[in-house]
Each structure stands twice: as C-alpha cells, then as structure tokens.
Specification:
Chains: A mainly alpha (114), B mainly alpha (112), C mainly alpha (83), D mainly alpha (608), E mainly alpha (247), F mainly alpha (161), G mainly alpha (477)
Distance between the termini of chain G: 40 Å
Number of helices of chain G: 18
Structural class of chain G: mainly alpha
Helix content of chain G: 55-70%
Structural class of chain D: mainly alpha
Radius of gyration of chain G: 21 Å
Order of helices and strands of chain G: HHEEHHHHHHHHHHHHHHHH
Helix content of chain D: 55-70%
Radius of gyration of chain D: 26 Å
Number of helices of chain D: 24
Strand content of chain D: under 5%
Number of strands of chain G: 2
Largest sheet of chain G: 2 strands, antiparallel
Shape of chain G: globular
Bound molecules: sodium ion
Shape of chain D: globular
Largest sheet of chain D: 3 strands, antiparallel
Distance between the termini of chain D: 70 Å
Strand order of the largest sheet of chain D: 5-6-7
Number of domains of chain D: 3
Oligomer: heteroheptamer
Strand content of chain G: under 5%
Chain lengths: 114, 112, 83, 608, 247, 161, 477
C-alpha cells in the first residue's frame, strides 16, 4: 500500500546515501528519501472514502468525510523546504565541481583545510 | 448529446492508444515522435471536446488546455527530435534523404 | 461502462508508452515516451474531473500540462549534444 | 587583624604587585617580597586567632591549629624565596604575571588551609594548582607544565568526586560534619578515602604519582622550585591528614583486615610511602642535574611524611608533622643555594660546575646544612623528625617501613655527598674564575633558613609544642618532652646533647683542617696527561657519570614514566581512531553510523 | 560487497522501522486515520475560536477563516507561522545560491542554440503560464494550490524562456525587489494583525462568504504575496544557476 | 508603452479563460495582467500593433479549420501506419523552402507540419524548414515544399505578412 | 507588553528589506541585532499565540524562563559576535538576519512542526555560512546530513501525530506521558537522531570537523556558541520537557552523550591545530550538555550551556582571527602569539579556564552545580566520565595555552614570537568584545548570583526535578 511504499522509498533513499559517492546521486537519494517521507506523511492522514478537503459547490458542507487536511498542509511545507535545500545542494555541487573538477566524493580528498 | 460526448471521448482515448502504440512500434526516434505527437494532440482535443459537451461551463478552461497542448506538444517533439539528431541517435536504416546533415555540418563548422 | 472503454484505451496508450520508456534505447526515446505519457495523463485528469464532477481538477490538468512541457524541454536541452 | 582581611589583602596584593611590576620590575619584585613577609608576620602574630571563623564571598573559613601550622610552613617558604624574585625579573618573559601568580598561589594556600567547607577547600586547591601551572613554563619547559597539570588535575578531579560523594551522602559540605555518616559505611568510606588519598599522593609525589615532580621541580623557574618542593607538595600531606584524621580512617576501618594493627587500606598506602622512600633515594643518586636531584629527594621525604601521617600516633605523627617543616625549609634552602649558583653561572648541571665554595662560601654552607637536614643526619632538624618517625614505626613493629626509612637515610648520604663535592668543592672552572659572590638580598633568606634548620634541630621544643596541639585536636596523645629531651617508648633523644657532640667533632676537624693544611690550589687546566694537554675541562671532572657502575644495576628497570607515557600515547591514538572512524567529508560514513545506532537502540528497546 | 552490506543494513533498518511503527498502540492502519480525534477536526469544522455547527459552501458567512480549501485555511491561517517560515527557507536558499554564484557573469550557453520553433512556441505559452501562476495563487482559498504552486508556475515560465531563448535575460533586480517587498509586506501584514487584534498574523479582515472570490480575509492577500515572492525567488535561483563561469 | 499594453492584453486573455467572466474576476484579472506585465514587460516584446487583432481573427476563422482537418487526416494516416503489421515507411530529412516571415507565422507553419500527415518539423533557418518525412516523395526542394507545406503556406502567408 | 514574536518578525522584516536596499544591508544587520538585544530586555514571560488560534490548534510561542535564558544568550552573543567581526560579513548580512530570526524561533516555538521549520531555516543559514570557508565539500556534507537529520525528525514527529493527533508540545507531552514509554522508543529515537545531528552528538556529527575547522572569526564563534546554544536549547526543550523517556532509552542516550564527551575530548587531545582542538572540545561539551538534559537536569545543563557559549565565543573568535590574519592556526607556528596581544591572550585564557571549570570563573559554578545535580540523581558513573573529560580537556588546553604564551621551542627561550610570515593582528572591536565576554565569565564566577538569578527558574517546567539539590551558593550547607 501507499504507506509501505513511502517507507520503502525512505529506505531506498537511505540505501542511496550509503552507497553513492557521486554528489548528484547523493542529492537524488536525499530527494527520494524526502519523497518517501512525504508520501508517508500524506498516508497518515488518509481516510478510506474520504474526499479532498476542499469545499466546492458539489462537496459543499463540513459534514462530509474528508481526509485529514493537516498532513497535506505539512507536506506542502516540507516539499518547499526540500526544494530550498535541494537548490542549495545543487549549488554546492556546482561549486565543488568547479573546485575539484569532479562530482565524485571518492576522488575528492578528505580534510585539508588549513 | 451524451452519446456524442462519449464518442468523442472514445475517439480521443483511441488515439491515445494509437499514440502509445506508435511510440512503441516505430523504428527510430523521429518516426516515434511523429506518431506520438499527432495522435496525442488529436486525442486530447477530441477528449476535451467530449468533456466540454457534457460540461459546457468548463469550455473556457478546456479551450485553454487545448490551445496549450496544441502549441506545446509539437514544439516539444520537434525540440526533442532536433536534440536527438544532434546527439546522434540511431536513425532508421531505411532513411533516404538527410538534408539536416549539411545544415549541421555548416553550423558545427562555424562553432568549432 | 463507457468510462471503462475509455479508460481501457487510455491505459493501453500508457502501457505502450511505458514499454518504450523501459526499453529506450536512447534517453531521447525515454523522454519522448514520458512526454507522451504526460499528455495522456493530463487528458486523464480532465476525465477524472468529469467523473468526480469537480472542476478543480481542470486546474490540476493545466498545471500538469505545463510541467510536462517544461520537463520535455529541460531534458531535451540538457541532453542535446550528449551521446 | 583578622584573617578574612588577610586573605582578601593577599589577593589584592597579587594584583597590585602586577601593577607595580608594570611600572618597575624591581619594585614589583620587592612588593612581592613585602607582601609575602607581611603575610608571614600576620600569621605569626595571629596565633591567637585560632578557632575564629570567617567568610569571603560564598566561601567559608575556620582558623585551625593544623591549618595555621601548614600555612605557616608554606608562607615561610614563599617569603624566603621571594627575596630572590628581583634577581630574575629581567630574565622572565612575563615578570609582572610572575609576581602576580606568585602571590596568588600564596593567597591560595592560605585559603586552602583555612577552608572550613569542602568546596572552599577545592576552590583554593585549584587556585594553587593553576597559578603554579602557569608559573612553571616561565622556566624552561612547557612540557613540565602540562605533565604537572595533568597529574595535579587527576588528583583534584578525584578530590572533587570524593567531595561530591560525601556531600551526596551527608548533605553537608562542612568539613567537620561531612564525613560523619561515613563511619557507619566502611565501603563508601573506603571509596572516599582512596579517592582523597589518591589526590594527596599525586601532590606529595608518592609512587606511582611521582613522575611529574622531578620534571616540574627541575624545570620550574629557579625562584619557584623552592616553593614547589618546599611548600606546595605539602598540600598533599594536608589532604592525607584530612583523610586519616577527619574521616577518621581508623574509626571507619575498624572492621577491616588489619596488619600489625594497621587497617589494610592504610597499610597499603604505607607500602607506597616506603616504595617512594626507596625509589626517591635511588633516583636522586643518579641525577645529573642538581635541581632534579633535590626533587627526587622530595619524593623520598614525601614518603616519610605520608607514613608518619598514616600512623596517627604519638611519635610517628609528630615526627611527620615536624618533618614537614624541616623538609620545607631544608629543601627550600637547598634549591635557593642552587638558584644562587644558577644565577651566577647560568647552569645547574653538576658536571658543568665545581669549586663554588671559593666564590660563594655562604651558599656552600647553606647547601651543606640543608642537605644534611634532608638526609636526616644529626644535628639538623631532619634528623629529629626522621628519628621520631622511625621510633614510632619500630614501636608498632612495622619493620618493613622502618627498614625502608632507614635505607632512605643511608642512601641519602650518597646523593648528599655528590653535589656537595661536584658543585661546591673541587676545582673552579676557568670560566668561573671571575664570578662574584652572592648578592646581599640572596644572603638574607639563606642565613635565616640556615638558622632555622639548625635551631629546630637543636631546640625543637617550640615546634613540638604546636605539633602537640595538633595532635590533641586530632584526638591523639601529644608527643612528650622533658626539657630538650624527647621521650619515646624505646628511647630518648636529647637534641642539645646531640648538637654538642657533633659540634665538638666538627670543631676538632676544622682545627685539624686549618692547622695541617698541605694542599695548594691548582688551576683546573694546570696539568697534562700523557704529555698531552687536554682542553675540555669536563674530562678532568669526576662529577660526570659519578655512579655509573651503580647505575648499571637498574638500567632497564620497569618504569612508571614509561607506563604512564604509554597510557597517554594510547589516549592520543584513540583520538586519531575516533577521528578516522566518525569524521569524514562523505555523508555515507555518518549515514552508516546513524543506521547502526538506529538498529542497535531499537533492537535493545525490543528486548533483543 | 559494500552494496550488499548496505543492503543488509538497510533491510534491518527497514524491518525495525516497519515493526516499530506498526507495533505502536494507536498508530492508525492505512486509511483508518481518526480525523475526529485529531486537531484537524476543528480545522474542518472551522471552530477553533468559536462554535460552528455547519459550514456550507457559498452560504456560511463570517467564519473564523473563510477559505473553502481547508488545506489553505491551515497553511495561511491556523498555521500561517509555518508558512512564513517556509517562505523564509526559500528566501535564504535563494540568497545562498546567489552568494555562491555571485561572482559569475554572463550565461551558460549550450552548444546548440535553440531554434525559432522552441523560442517562439515558448513565447506563445509564456504569458499563459504566468497568468496561470497568478490565477493559482489568487484562488488558493478556493481551489487546490496557492502561493507556492502559483509562484512555481511563474518561475517555470521564466525557466522555459531561459531554455528557449539564449538572449533572454530577466532584470534580476526587479525580481529581487519584488521578492523583498513581498516578504516585507507579509511580515508587515502580520504586524498589523498584532496591532489590531494582539495576535501576530491574525486574520483581521472580514472573512466573507465561504466559496466566493473575495472571502477568507487576508488569505488571498498572503497568497498573492507568497506567490510573488516564491516566483521571484525561484526565478532568482534559476537565473543564478544559469550564470556563466566567467568571474 | 506599447510593449506594456501588448503584454497586458496577452495576459488578460488566459485569465478570462481560466477565471470566467464574473465581474469581480474580470477586474481582478485586469489588475493581475497589468501587474505581471509591469514586472515582466521589459523582458519581452508583445508589442501591440494595429492589425494584430485582424490577423488573430483571420487566423482563427480561416486557418484553424484547415488545420484541424489536416490533423484528422494525419491521425488516420498514423493509425494506418501504426496498425499495419508491415509498417510501410520511407523516412528522410528534407529541406523545404518557406516564404513566411516572422517567428509566429513560421511557428504556426512548423507546428502545422508536425501535426499533419507524415511530417515532423525538426529545425529551420531563415528561409527553410527541415522536416522529418515518414514517406519521402518528390525530388526537388520546391516539389517537396509543395507536398509538405502547401496548404498552410498560402493561408499563413496571408495572415503573417 | 512586548510580544516575543517581534524577535523573529523584525529580523525577518529587515532581512527582506535588506535585499531591496542592498547597499544598507550591513547597517540593517547591526540595527536588527541591536534592536533584538534591546527587545530581549523588555520581555515578559508567558505564552504568546500566533494568529489568535489557541493551542493545540494554532502555533504558540512559549516564553518561560528556559526560553528566556535561551534568547538572552542567543541575542546577546549574536550582537557581540556580529559587532566584533563586522569586517568578515562579506555578503552574509541578510543570511545572518534570517539566522537570528531562525534561532529565536527555535527556542521560542511551542509547536513541534513549527520547530521543524525553524530548524530548517537555521540549518540552511548554517550551510550557507559554512561555505564561507570555500570548502564546499564540507558544506555539502553538512547539508546532506542536516537534511537527513531533519527528515528523521519529521518522520518521528509524524508518527507521533498519527498516534496522538496533535503537534503542540505541551499537549503532546501530556498525551505521551499517559502512554507506556516503551511504546514510544522509535519516534523518540528518530527525533533524537534528527536533533543529534545539529547538536553534534556522536556518531551523528560527521560534518562537524570539516565545517568547524575552516571557520573564520565570524562564523566560528557564531557556530560554536550561538548556533550550538540554540540547538541545545531545543534539544533540552524536547528531551527534558516534551518527550518522556523510558529508563532504557534514557540510559542509552545518556551513554551516547557521555561517549560523545569522551570521544570529543580524546580527539581534541590528539590535535595540534587550534580550531580543531576547539571543535572537538565543542563536540565534547555538546555531549555533556545533552547528557545533562537527557538526565532531566535542565537547570545545570543550561548553566553549562551558557558557560560553553560564552567561552567558545571568545575562543573561536581568537582562533578564527589567528587563522584570518596569519593564514594558519597550527599551534606550533603560533608559539608565543599572545606575547604581543596580551588582552586577547588573557581573554582566551579566561575562556579556556572557564571551560575547564576553574574557580574564579563561571565555568566553576556550573561544573559544581552539574556535578551536584548528577550525584543527586544517583548517577555515580557519569561524574567519572565528566571528570575524566575535564582532566583531558585541561591537559590539551594547558598545552595550548603555554604554547601560545611562550615562544620558542621546548627548552629554548626565543624572542621570536612565531614562525608564520604574516603577523597576527586583532582589531580593537574584537578586543572589546573579548573583554566584555571575559568580564561576564569573571562576574559569573565571583558573583554567581548575578547570572544565577536570571537562570534560577530555567528548569521550572520540570517540577519534580527542580533544583532541590542545587548548590547553595550562600552557605555551601
Ligand atoms: Na505551508
Ligand atoms: Na503552499
């Protein structure tokens, strides 16, 4: 089910973080992790037969069964935050590439500052 | 009216299927793009028309979608085809004429 | 009943595109199939709007179509010239 | 004048000495001397204050006999040594800070011995440790400061643990009350005792915590070595006293296994003391540096003091308290004598010196008397105190300890003789031909200390009177005296008679020396060997490798230094391992550990 | 080897995660969330500050939040402090990106210039996408979407133009100003709420009738600001990423 | 200024399609169009010229029906090709001349070609289009141009001068 | 009545304004930090609701003594550090304004998800600031780990929401307390790991070395004191006040904290570069403070936190300045560096000694209290670890201090200050800041009541462990 899929994605993300040394792949892994997390969050608010929590001229009153709107709001926030960190991560990636000529962390030396 | 709507929708869906099949069956990127683009564009237009018949109040938005897809779908395919050509994707061996070669030779020559 | 026919056909379209997505062979073929699938999906969202009788899905369809186009262009421009 | 003002004044004095030093270095040094002497004067005059209590900020004090006695010893050493400070001002990198830290640590010792609660005690303990830590690198070794600090810190942190433990159990920090509940709880009492005593041992430099002592004492500025060796090591004795007398150990360990009537816990420590005597003596013998030699003699003398305190009896305890004083002034005098030599010649290496008696006879005399006292040879003070300790040991039948103590006295002849002969006697080196005599300001403290050593060796009555008061306060029988005769169980010692006999013998030998003098002074280089002139004076000198055959006996002995050094190195390596295991520029490393911890803790939580 | 080891480790983590989560008492099975036992119920009923029996689309007036989209009412009313924070995250990320690429000049160029088909096609849909973005954030209280999707649409339009036209260049200062002003106005709006009703970011405007365009009080205003801000921020990020390597 | 007006109008049209013609939406739409135009117009040139409107109407009335018809034909063609087990194709990249000037006109042509039977615009230069043709016919550029873009060239030429 | 939300809103407002008026952004930063520092002095304790929706439905700010201490430290140190190193601002003024808002939000918020948002804001500013060293691979590593950490935090938080249906800290703590703690091991652990990355607890702190060892005189003190304080305050809030820990989990996590302390100190011992020594010391201190919070000893944890923040501000400022002006922070090459900069040297020394817990300085008061606290909670092994840590810490600090004070090689007194080519310069603004901070450490050590009174109720949320055990500074009885 969707909830399990969310957790699986989280695990895939962690697996990626464990095994990848290419910066772009690390960022992708992190995004998979976040995606899984978001799926999990949404799934926590799911109600079978529940409708999207928007009142319309058709679904027009609060007596209906809605899915939990709060996780959706939280996910929206989490997505945007994830977007922000991804952008910054990619910017670092580009800076690293300029500095070291590679995106592979294995090819970049460890501590050397100072 | 509902019959008309469903016929239109069925036609649309049929061309979606054709588009998918075209994408799958055609021998190279360019032929696939040909098949996919035409079929899905017409499919979408037909489908939207069918929906519009049932829900006349939605027609403005449907129109917007239709225009958008009619403009962007061929542009997307064309751009993809050009990019593929530039990257040297395999071209179907039965391809007879290639006027692009000379164009890009010229451009590349200017570039390099 | 009619809906079932419609969705079966739509599903077929998606299925064949998916096959192309999986088989490639070049990234361009994959992007092309993705592009096709995206168009089909935006159409399907419109169908869902009709079924749920909810015009809100039309907005989603538009956004989806926009993002689909953008995706195709991004991939095309990114991949152009790489073999 | 009450003592709270004194304590505060001393701290203020430290600051003003710093400020005065900024204006004039000499003036700053003199100010330090004046303040130190002032503190000494106040202490001597303030004997009547014993029993008074006072508080400064959040710290609480009480003037006890033992505290007064310890501070007296301490401040005396500080005051005498401070006469030398002015001569080193221009050689110091931070002369102002030196004066500041000097007085600061002096003030710290006052607070330490007057503290009436454990936290106050600890605070001043730390003040002294830290101010002395920063004085040591002003000498020639930074490493010495680090080693000194680390060992001191092991001691003070152990103390702190003990203080906290006592507070947790008794709910009070007042020294006189905090230990009361421990009498009922021998196990905790043992833990607390071991912890406190360990702190004491590190400070006195008892085996195996002695390694810092020669290094620090040998490397500290020449003007601070006397304080370190004569004064600060006695802090450890104070802690040992507290553990034994205030805990009180004999009561708490009533039920313990006993050897010759000594509870096992105490007996074990006595063995350490005995080892220190033997080890200190042996190590002192092989030293090439005069300062290190005296430092090792401090290790040995610390052993005597510890054993005496642990005895908690009429004789040994009194002897220990007395030895504390005698050793303080004698080792201060010896270090000062070496300091004079170093001031004039710039070295303390035995092999580079010789014939100093010709240029500075007073220094020679000071050193002679001091070292005789250190070795426990009559008629100096050191003899009396060692005699008392050995009497007490023999009385209890603790023959191993008594033997060690006796060995210490014999062995000390060997190391006493050496610098005496090599530094002061023999021939003067060519480069030392034009040395000047010691300055007046240096003569003053040396004369005073010399007089004190002799005086208390001959007439210890006043001193033993105070010690008797301490003994009474600690609940033991005071040492008995009749006139100048000390009454022990196995014998009596009339110090005046001893002095008469030795004085008479000395006079006779002096007369013989003067009347029958046949030797003629010859320049060191005024000779040749196998028709070849030798130009390196060292080759003539019989001070280098003095006891080489003897040294071969313990060339490859297992060494505490090596052992502790290995531990320190292991810590260093562990740090490198931690670094390599956990810190990386690759996220995968941390993600891996995160997963591992997640697994471990969740599994543990599931009860697997 | 490393991969197999990682796989095993992740598998163990997975098993523990699964068993840990599903063995918790009270963790709802999928699809069985008890919304009525959560704070969300009050968001749906719009009765945090007052008792509402019924909320009816197009009828109920003057509710505590007039948003027909309940998610929006959470995002911009009940938890609008989160949203301010979220805007800030994007803001500071954009700042970070522009600091990293601050010294770069010019534009990254690909080997092949885009042709007129792409260029013109993009130009045709560009206004459409922009307006779509604005529509989304203005109608955030009525339909899915809101400030962030709307802003993203605007930025997508800009990205499209960058890809389609090598000579396209936004005047980034205008966007920065828009971004700053929109952000400042968001905070100021909150401060006005603080002054009027003593609560930062309180919905001090009339909330109108649920389901109408001019309803929900400050929600549409906030969403317009957020939309403009997000749009200009993402544009800034895109512009920075496409800067050339010349320093 | 004309850039601003042009941009505003271009923005306003989709708004109306999206939001409907409710007066409040119209007012809002006009505002939004002008605000966005105000932010972006300097980066674009949707200059508003006389004749634009007439061109647009002509485009809608004349061109769109033709285009739709061609699109239907194209799809039938595709369907046959795709469903035919033998898949009769004879592809090639051909260069065809075009007389249409202006980006919009050329775009319309290119898209039209893409959506009509057997052809896909791949690229173009000033006076030509390069087209992937699934069933290449004709020998010369001119001849092929006629075959590929014939029906549109005239109409579009009339609209986008 | 001043609403503490202003501490968040005003710096944010100024940050937004600062990109409109770019030319004035440094002035805006100075103005903002001054404004915040001033505002802190006018605050009243209480609960402040955002948007007018009562918790648990809306987000609230909790200004209790704990939070008050936190924002006092954060805003005060932020001001001092910013003013000290204005020349190092480069382009970071706007980022710093956001950081100030984020840190205040972290400490003030009473909502777990809102905390996540502020955690991300603060963390992102940290990623950006850590790129000031131009060592982007370390900044990237930090970003990845930080993001993963906050993801895990969010994971745990959502699990809690699914079970308890609320995000409000107070509400949640009541509901969680009613449940068997063994049920909550997983979400608690996830939240712990999330925060542990930022709090620098082993083994979640792999990023620290790369990031801290390259910091300059602005970023170093900010990270080591202000950020560290903010993150630790949050950690304390969550683990001493919100999430009830069962015996098993509490013990495991305290052990982790203790291991962090030891590992940090031991690693510092093996280092010779000043900033590396300091960064491992920071790790050790974080482990200690975390262990205290986890043991429920809020009050003493806060004291130690304050001591660490004040000391590290000085230490990293001086170390950063050494690196900035001489190009190295290798102890060997900086022998005797303090010879010509005695005030900075004395400040550095005071900070180091206070960190170790020497009497006369505030560190002593906090160390005494924390030991009392731990003994009072009947934990007899943790003090052993702490005191062992103190011995090691003292050793490397003394080693460093004597090196920096006395030039020349071992055994050779040399007049040459140090071996680097560029001279060590220290601006007067830094010297002033160092003096101010040192004086605070001294006042705290000599007249502890001055600082103490401001902290006294910091543990008030935890009545059962409120400081009955506290060392009575007046009598020692
Ligand atoms: Na949000
Ligand atoms: Na949103």
């Amino acid at each position: 089910m969707i909830q399990y899929a969310g957790i699986m994605l989280i695990l895939i993300g962690i697996y990626g973080l464990l095994t990848q040394s290419n910066i772009i792949k690390i960022i992708v892994s992190l995004n998979i992790f976040e995606l899984g997390l978001n799926v999990f969050i949404i799934s926590v608010g799911f109600v079978r037969e529940g409708i999207a929590p928007i009142l319309t001229s058709v679904n027009n009153h609060n007596g209906l069964v809605f899915v939990d709107p709060l996780p959706q709001a939280l996910v929206l926030t989490a997505i945007v935050i994830g977007l922000g960190t991804t952008a910054l991560g990619l910017a670092f990636a580009r800076s690293i590439y300029r500095q070291h000529g590679t995106l592979n962390l294995d090819e970049i030396g460890g501590p050397s500052n100072g | 009216m509902i019959i008309v709507s469903y016929i239109l929708m069925l036609i649309g869906a049929f061309f979606y299927a054709i588009g998918g099949l075209g994408i799958y069956r055609m021998p190279d990127l360019f032929n696939r793009a040909q098949a996919g683009t035409k079929a899905t564009t017409l499919g979408t237009l037909s489908l939207l028309l069918g929906v519009g018949v049932q829900q006349p109040s939605w027609i403005p938005k449907l129109l917007l979608i239709a225009v958008f897809i009619a403009v962007t779908n061929p542009v997307g395919s064309s751009t993809l085809a050009r990019a593929g050509y530039h990257s040297g994707v395999p071209i179907y061996e039965g391809t007879q004429v290639d006027d692009l070669k000379e164009l890009y030779k010229k451009e590349d020559g200017l570039d390099e | 009943m009619m809906n079932a026919f419609v969705f079966t056909l739509v599903g077929l379209g998606l299925f064949f595109s998916l096959l192309r997505l999986l088989t490639g062979p070049t990234p361009f073929d994959r992007v092309l199939s993705l592009d096709t699938m995206n168009i089909i999906i935006s159409g399907s969202i419109v169908l869902i709007a009709l079924i749920f009788n909810n015009a809100l899905y039309l907005d989603i369809a538009i956004v989806y179509a926009v993002l689909a186009f953008l995706e195709t262009i991004v991939f095309a421009r990114y991949l152009e010239g790489r073999s | 004048m009450t003592f709270d003002i004194v304590v505060i004044l001393m701290f203020l004095g430290a600051f003003s000495a710093y400020l005065i030093s900024k204006a004039s270095l000499k003036a700053g040094a003199y100010a330090t001397t004046v303040f130190s002497l002032g503190a000494l004067a106040v202490l001597l005059m303030g004997r009547s204050e014993i029993g008074s209590e006072f508080s400064v900020l959040f710290m609480n004090f009480e003037v006890t006999v033992i505290g007064w006695y310890f501070s007296g010893v301490m401040v005396l050493v500080y005051a005498m040594t401070s006469f030398f400070n002015s001569f080193w001002m221009d050689k110091m990198m931070y002369p102002g800070s030196y004066n500041f830290l000097y007085l600061f640590s002096l003030a710290g010792t006052l607070g330490l011995f007057f503290a009436s609660d454990l936290i106050t005690l600890f605070i001043f303990w730390e003040v002294v440790v830290w101010s002395s830590t920063f004085i040591i690198p002003m000498g020639k070794s930074r490493r010495a400061a680090v080693v000194y600090y680390t060992i001191s810190s092991i001691g003070s942190m152990a103390t702190l643990y003990g203080i906290m433990l006592v507070y947790r159990i008794s709910g009070t920090l007042v020294i006189q009350e905090a230990f009361v509940p421990l009498k009922e709880d021998p196990l905790t009492a043992t833990v607390v005792f071991v912890i406190f005593v360990m702190a004491g041992l590190t400070k006195i430099g008892i085996f195996p915590f002695h390694i810092w002592l020669p290094l620090a004492h040998g490397s500290a500025p020449h003007t601070f070595s006397p304080v370190l060796s004569g004064g600060l090591v006695k802090m450890g004795a104070f802690i040992a006293y507290m553990s034994v007398a205030i805990l009180p150990a004999y009561e708490a360990f009533e039920g313990s296994l006993k050897i010759m009537g000594i509870p096992l816990q105490l007996y074990f420590l006595m063995i350490l003391g005995a080892i220190s005597i033997v080890l200190g003596t042996l190590m002192a013998i092989k030293q090439e540096d005069a300062k290190k030699l005296i430092a090792y003699s401090s290790v040995a003398n610390g052993g005597y003091i510890l054993i005496g305190i642990l005895m908690m009896d009429q004789l040994s305890f009194a002897g220990s308290m007395m030895h504390l004083f005698n050793h303080a002034i004698a080792s201060a005098a010896a270090f000062l004598a070496i300091a004079v030599v170093a001031y004039r010649t710039g070295t303390t290496k035995i092999s580079e010196l010789g014939g100093m008696i010709h240029r500075m006879p007073l220094t020679y005399l000071t050193y002679l008397i001091a070292i005789i006292s250190l070795a426990g040879i009559p008629p100096m003070g050191g003899f009396v105190s060692k005699w008392l300790i050995i009497q007490g040991l023999a009385d209890r039948g603790l023959m191993f300890m008594a033997l060690a103590a006796f060995f210490g006295s014999i062995g000390s002849f060997l190391y006493v003789f050496r610098p005496l002969a090599a530094v002061f006697l023999g021939q003067l080196k060519p480069e030392h031909e034009h040395l000047k005599s010691e300055p007046l300001m240096m003569k003053i403290p040396m004369v005073i200390l010399m007089v004190l050593i002799l005086y208390f060796g001959v007439l210890p009555k006043w001193l033993l009177g105070i010690i008797g008061e301490i003994q009474v306060a600690a609940g033991i029988e005071p040492v008995m005296m009749s006139g100048n005769t000390i009454l022990a169980v196995n014998g009596v010692l009339n110090t005046l008679n001893v002095f008469m006999i030795f004085g008479f013998g000395f006079l006779i030998s002096l007369i013989i020396f003067l009347l029958m003098q046949k030797s003629r002074r010859v320049g060191l280089m005024d000779t040749y060997t196998s028709a070849e002139f030798i130009y390196t004076p060292e080759l003539y000198h019989y001070a280098g490798a003095f006891y080489a055959p003897f040294e071969r006996l313990y060339q490859n002995h297992p060494s505490v230094e090596k052992f502790l050094g290995a531990i320190a190195w292991k810590f260093h390596e562990l740090g490198t391992v931690v670094n390599a295991l956990f810190f990386s520029h690759k996220p995968a490393v941390t993600v891996f550990w995160t997963s591992v911890i997640l697994v471990m803790i969740t599994l543990g939580g599931a009860g697997i | 080897m490393k991969r197999i080891f990682a796989l095993v480790l992740v598998a163990v983590v997975g098993i523990l995660l699964f068993s840990g989560i599903y063995s918790m008492e009270g963790f709802p099975r999928y699809g069985e969330a008890e919304v009525s036992e959560r704070v969300s119920m009050s968001y749906i009923d719009k009765n945090v500050t007052r008792e509402n029996q019924e909320v009816v689309f197009g009828v109920s007036e003057n509710l505590e939040t007039g948003s027909a989209n309940i998610v929006t009412s959470i995002i911009v009313n009940y938890r609008s402090f989160d949203t301010l924070g979220e805007v800030t995250v994007l803001f500071v990320s954009a700042l970070g990106v522009s600091l990293l690429f601050g010294s770069f000049e010019g534009r990254l160029r690909s080997r092949y210039k885009p042709n007129f088909i792409l260029r013109t096609g993009s130009k045709v849909v560009f206004p459409l996408i922009l307006v779509m973005g604005a529509y989304i954030f203005i109608h955030g209280h009525l339909s899915p979407g809101g400030g962030f999707p709307g802003g993203s649409m605007i930025a997508s339009a800009i990205l499209l133009m960058y890809l389609a036209d090598e000579d396209f260049r936004v005047r980034i200062d205008d966007f920065k100003k828009t971004e700053g002003i929109a952000g400042a106005m968001y905070v100021l709006l909150g401060l006005v709420g603080l002054m009027i009703s003593n609560y930062f970011l309180s919905n001090f405007l009339d909330t109108g009738t649920v389901g109408t365009l001019f309803s929900a009080g400050i929600i549409p205003v906030v969403y317009v600001l957020v939309g403009l801000k997000v749009g200009s921020e993402l544009t800034g990020i895109i512009t920075d990423f496409l800067k050339g390597e010349v320093e | 200024m004309s850039k601003f007006i042009g941009a505003s109008v271009i923005m306003f049209i989709p708004w109306v399609l999206l939001a409907g013609s409710d007066p409040s939406e119209l007012i809002l739409g006009a505002t939004v169009a002008m605000v966005i135009a105000g932010i972006i117009y300097r980066n674009l040139d949707y200059a508003f010229k006389s004749g634009s409107l007439a061109g647009a109407i002509k485009f809608l009335v004349v061109y769109v029906p033709v285009f739709l018809w061609e699109l239907v034909k194209a799809n039938i063609d595709v369907a046959f090709r795709v469903l035919n087990p033998r898949m009769p194709i004879n592809p090639g990249f051909v260069k065809i001349p075009t007389g249409i000037k202006g980006d919009y006109g050329r775009l319309a042509l290119a898209n039209s070609i893409t959506l009509t039977p057997g052809t896909l615009s791949v690229d173009g230069d000033e006076n030509h289009l390069y087209v992937h043709w699934i069933d290449v016919m004709g020998e010369s550029q001119k001849e092929r141009g006629e075959l590929v873009s014939g029906p549109f060239e005239d109409i579009l030429g009339g609209i986008f001068k | 009545m001043v609403n503490p939300v202003l501490l968040i809103a005003l710096p944010l407002l100024l940050a937004f304004v600062s990109i409109v008026f770019k030319a004035y952004k440094n002035n805006l930063l100075v103005f903002g930090t001054l404004l915040n520092a001033g505002l802190v002095l006018t605050l009243n304790k209480g609960q402040y609701i955002i948007g007018g929706f009562q918790p648990p439905f809306g987000i609230n700010l909790v200004l209790d003594d704990f939070a008050l201490t936190g924002i006092l430290i954060i805003n005060g140190l932020f001001l001092v550090i910013t003013l000290m190193s204005l020349e190092k601002l480069e382009g970071f003024a706007s980022v710093l304004l956001v950081a100030l808002a984020g840190l205040n939000g972290l400490v003030l918020t009473g909502d777990l998800f809102n905390l996540f948002v502020f955690l991300e804001i603060t963390a992102i500013t940290a990623y950006i600031l850590s790129s000031a060293s131009k060592e982007y691979r370390y900044a990237f590593n930090y970003l990845v780990l930080g993001t993963l950490g906050s993801g895990l935090y969010l994971f745990g938080l959502i699990v809690l929401y699914a079970v308890f249906g609320t995000l409000n800290m107070a509400d949640l703590s009541v509901k969680m307390a009613a449940v068997d703690a063994s049920q909550l091991v997983l979400p608690s652990l996830l939240i712990f790991i999330g925060l542990a990355v930022e709090v620098k607890i082993l083994p979640f702190n792999g990023w620290v070395k790369g990031v801290y060892s390259g910091t300059n005189s602005l970023v170093g003190p900010l990270f080591a004191s202000v950020y560290a304080a903010g993150m630790l305050f949050v950690f304390g809030r969550i683990f001493a006040q919100v999430i009830p820990l069962g015996t098993y989990l509490r013990t495991s996590l305290v052990v982790l904290g203790a291991l962090t302390l030891l590992a940090g100190e031991v690693a510092a011992l093996s280092k010779t570069r000043i900033r590396e020594i300091l960064l491992y010391s920071s790790i050790g201190q974080s482990g200690l403070i975390a262990a205290l919070f986890l043991s429920g000893l809020v009050f003493v944890a806060v004291m130690q936190l304050v001591n660490n923040a004040l000391s590290k501000a000085i230490l990293f400022t001086v170390a950063g300045q050494m690196a900035d002006s001489t190009g190295t922070d290798e102890g060997e090459e900086l022998q005797g560096a303090f010879l010509e900069h005695k005030i900075a040297g004395v400040g550095f020394t005071i900070a180091a000694l206070s960190l170790i817990g020497l009497p006369l300085f505030y560190g002593f008061i906090s160390k005494m209290n924390l030991l009392f606290g731990i003994f009072y909670s009947d934990n007899y092994w943790l003090p052993v670890v702490i005191l062992l840590g103190t011995v090691i810490e003292g050793t490397y600090m003394v080693r460093l201090l004597v090196k920096l004070w006395t030039p020349g090689d071992e055994g050779i007194v040399s007049e040459k200050a140090f071996a680097t080519e560029r001279p060590l310069t220290i601006q007067s603004s830094k010297v002033m800041g160092i003096v101010v901070l040192s004086v605070v450490l001294l006042i705290g050590g000599l007249l502890p009541a001055v600082i103490q009174d401001n902290l006294t109720d910091s543990g008030s949320l935890l009545d059962e462990v409120t400081p009955a055990y506290l060392f009575d500074l007046k009598g020692g009885q």
